[in-house]
Write a structure and sequence with these properties.
Helices cover 33% and strands 0% of the residues. The protein is mainly alpha-helical and 93 residues long.
Length: 93
């Protein structure tokens, strides 16, 4: 930074109390079923049959199809933005 530049200072007083605390995850508003998982992986063009092929998945250690991690971002109420979840859940405190 040159001597003529002034550093930018952001006002974080409204969220400063959150600094140093763990941020919790989101939660599903509605249950997720196998059809939801299959539709998600088809839309995302996942090729791993563990996420969509019932017969294949039954032969794995999981015994059934499982959701990829990316579905959590799509289905929680914060859509992957945990800060939005915290703001929503702490608004009444």
């Amino acid at each position: 930074m040159s001597a003529s530049e002034t550093p930018v200072r952001m006002d974080i007083s409204d969220v400063e109390w959150r600094l140093g605390h763990k941020v919790g995850g989101g939660e599903l508003w509605e249950p997720c079923n196998k059809t939801d998982i299959r539709r998600w992986v088809m839309a995302m063009d996942y090729v791993n049959p563990l996420h969509w092929d019932q017969r294949f998945a039954a032969q794995t250690k999981f015994g059934d199809i499982i959701a990829p991690q990316s579905i959590c971002v799509a289905l929680d109420y914060g859509h992957g933005n945990n800060q939005a979840c915290v703001a929503g859940s702490t608004a009444s405190t």
